[in-house]
Amino acid sequence: MAIAAPPRFDPAFRAQLAALFAWRRDVRRFSAEPLPEGTLEGLLDLATLAPSVGLSQPWRFVTVADAGRREAVRANFRACNAQALACQEGERAARYAALKLAGLDEAPCHFAVFNEDDPAQGRGLGRATMPETTAYSTVMAVHTLWLAARASGLGLGWVSILDPPTLTALLDVPRHWRFIGYFCLGMPSAQDDTPELERLGWECRSLRADQHLLR
Amino acid sequence: MAIAAPPRFDPAFRAQLAALFAWRRDVRRFSAEPLPEGTLEGLLDLATLAPSVGLSQPWRFVTVADAGRREAVRANFRACNAQALACQEGERAARYAALKLAGLDEAPCHFAVFNEDDPAQGRGLGRATMPETTAYSTVMAVHTLWLAARASGLGLGWVSILDPPTLTALLDVPRHWRFIGYFCLGMPSAQDDTPELERLGWECRSLRADQHLLR
Question: Which residues of A touch B51 (CB under 8 A)?
């Protein structure tokens, strides 16, 4: 990276950053319009600027373009989602069934993210007592990509209603890679500053931090 | 939140956001100057805008102001760091010993972050097959705070060279809370776009994503 003066972030930038946090959504409703060439690659390069324990950069990105594999992922989602629905009781079951929890059918871009739990890079620094910090690093790379996508007008949806061992086998990656999540990327068909789960009455969120003070 | 038009993020904002990603650092060198009243609270409120599985908001923030507890945390860091040093061999051991891996002595603001692994909020949605997604949500809240801090000219340091059960006991939190990390916040004494571990020759990083394509 070129040597440069440290950037100065002014109040206008901070206000826009706060708006980015407030309007970032988990998107499940996409236009099927393909993304311009290189879009995902640009976002992935930004994601590599994420913090990682001991500079280990343990994230592994797998773009899924193959229609057969995409259909197999969808099938796994349907099975896991049906099981989750079966665990809901009474009125909650009807509410759960009405939710759209993934944009796997429409999103033009699909990718999976895996973690190398014990990478050579970083030489183990910072993770002897907390080996889970490599997975946490990969999650921060996902979050970096998510924010960058939203700043470009794109939406990301994180699909976690999947069976990790099935996904690892299905996507033909090294068996020791840890499945972190499966992601849909595309143009969102709507924008909102309130999560869909809140708008549809599934859950209310707090806008104040849960903070405990130890004096 | 007030109803508002969706914000438009223009190329100038995206360039500044990319600079924020590039200049965010894990900071271990702080000025001891106290933070203005309300600084941490403002950052924590922004952190609550982070994505969370099923809108579960499982993050729990614990500010550590007490000098005795801070010293106990430092003692645990010293013990864990000595053990990590003992595992390094030859020339690497000298290099490890020369690294400054935490700013626990100078940073004016200390807080710990925990995760409620099985919160009532969210009603379990999205995490039946991947319960670890609550911890991942908390990590994204930390990352949100980290970026917001840097945009305000502040530095954050993530201390992971600690023993989680010791920290949970020491900070007097519910035993079932999962320790995610301990954090130092304050004015950084320097700014750089290159991680200290790279500048000091511990590890080199890649600036291109590790991407695999499944056609």
Answer: 24, 26, 143, 146, 158
Non-local CB neighbours of B5 within 8 Å, separated by 6+ positions:
none
Q: Does ipTM top 0.95?
A: yes
Nearest-angstrom CA–CA distance, B69 and A215: 9
User: For chain A, what are the domain ranges?
Assistant: 27-193
Strand duo A59-64 + B211-214: pairing: parallel
Question: Hey, what are B182's tokens?
Answer: 């301990």
Could you tell me which residues come within 8 angstroms of residue A167 by beta carbon, excluding any fewer than 6 positions away?
Answer: A73, A76, A112, A179, A182
> Which residue among A101, A152, A212 sits closest to B62, beta carbon to beta carbon?
A212
Q: Do A1 and B22 touch (CB under 8 A)?
A: yes
pLDDT band for position B1 (cuts 50, 70, 90): very low
Q: Are A52 and B195 in contact (CB under 8 A)?
A: no
> What are the DSSP calls for A31-99, one per residue?
--PPPPTTHHHHHHHHHTTS--GGG---EEEEEE--HHHHHHHHHHHHHHHHHHHHT--THHHHHHHT-
Q: Which of B83, B127, B181 sits opposite A128 (nearest CB)?
A: B83
Q: Which CATH architecture best describes the domain A27-193?
A: 3-Layer(aba) Sandwich (3.40)
How many CB atoms neighbour CB B204 within 10 A? 11
* CA nearest to A64 within chain B: B214
A1 has pLDDT over 50: no
**Pairing, β A211-214 against β B59-64:** parallel
Q: Tell me, which fold does domain B27-199 have in CATH?
A: NADH Oxidase (3.40.109)
Please state, in angstroms and rounded to a whole number, the distance separating the CA atoms of residues B34 and B187.
Answer: 9
Residues A182 and A196: their CA atoms lie apart, in Å, by 19
| Residue-wise pLDDT tens digits, A72-112 | 999 999 999 999 999 999 999 999 999 999 999 999 999 99
Distance from C-alpha of A188 to C-alpha of B213, rounded to nearest angstrom: 23
Chain A contact set for B206 (CB, 8 A): 48, 57
Question: pLDDT tens digits, residue range A167-212?
Answer: 999 999 999 999 999 999 999 999 999 999 999 999 999 998 878 8
Contacts of B210 (CB under 8 A, 6+ apart): A48, A57, A59, A60, A61
Over the stretch A146-165, which tens digit does the pLDDT of each residue have?
999 999 999 999 999 999 99
